[in-house]
Here is the input.
Amino acid sequence: MALILGIIGYGGMAGWHHKNCVKVPGVEVVAAYDIDPERVAAAEAEGLAGYSDLGEFLKDERFNTVLVATPNEVHCPLVCAALEAGKHTICEKPVALTVAELDRMISASEKANRVFTVHQNRRWDKDFVTAKAVYEGGELGNVYSIQSRLHGMGGAMHGWRGEPEHGGGMLYDWGVHFLDQIYFMLGYDQILSVHCVTKSIKNEKVDDYFSLMLQTASGVHVVVEIGTFVLEEAPRWKIMGDQGTMYIRGFGNDGKIVKVNTMVEDVPVIVQTSAGPTRTFAPRPKNVKQEFELPQLEPQWTEYYANVQDAIDGKTELIVKPCQVRKVLRLMECAFESARTGRQVVL
Ligand code: NAD
Here is the structure.
């Protein structure tokens, strides 16, 4: 069966979906509904059937799947309405603001017997896929620390993303992607507790900085940090194992695996540095470290739509499963609680 989409909320992200999903054979976009007449006109200008009425839109039988790409606070009622109308449904991230909302969406999909998934597209980001491959490949030995960071200097959360009533803030906006990545990489039984700090540096109403630490069952220490006003970037990923360290800068795979060169004898001695005498932190001869290229992987975001199409056809399982996004949302609830109370929260 083809994946024929009707989009709710024809804004910035909808345009991105429209451009990219049609690269998958059998995927089409035929209609859009928006509360803003200008966005309905924009959809019509792109050759779609434009709707200003949700009921009329959901009656359109030309599409079998609804994609919800509105601000976050209206995901839940719109997803439920689409499922109740018998449409398979894809929702943008964050799927909802609370686990209670998500549970209503999951039960609507079970009742309607329709596929329901969330656009966690950053599972296909090159930096993430590379970091996951290195982590799983074992070259770093026993991994003891994973650091996932993103720094920028845009400062502000723009438009509705700066408004709490629309589900704004950085933890909802990008945090949801990064926590989804950590769960997908480590496994869904791994995260035990969270300690989170949020700050509003350039915004009054929502968080535009957060830093959180996760305690895991395997003992890997995880740090996830996003700052919108950090004027010097840190690596996007740093993974430390007892046999080596990996880092990636930016969103691609600009980075290295660094290991000890076992061919070179290196007996640390005490060295006088500007910080005084030290053995542990003394500079080492250059050839003591060996650098290795990162794997060259070419993930495609379009795989997401192909997977949804195959899942609707019953050929495969969803890659982004509702039970997985529920884990992420629960973790986010605990992170907000930790930020509010200043305490570590056990999941
Ligand atoms: P946007 O403001 O550009 O577009 C939102 C659109 O929804 C607007 O056209 C608005 O008129 C419409 N809208 C608002 N309320 C509506 C309602 N009740 N019914 C119908 N239409 C309504 O926002 P955006 O940047 O496109 O973000 C939309 C969603 O996509 C958000 O959930 C956001 O988090 C998500 N998003 C995801 C990614 C990603 O990488 N997965 C990237 C950007 C945005």
Notes: The chain has a mean pLDDT of 96.
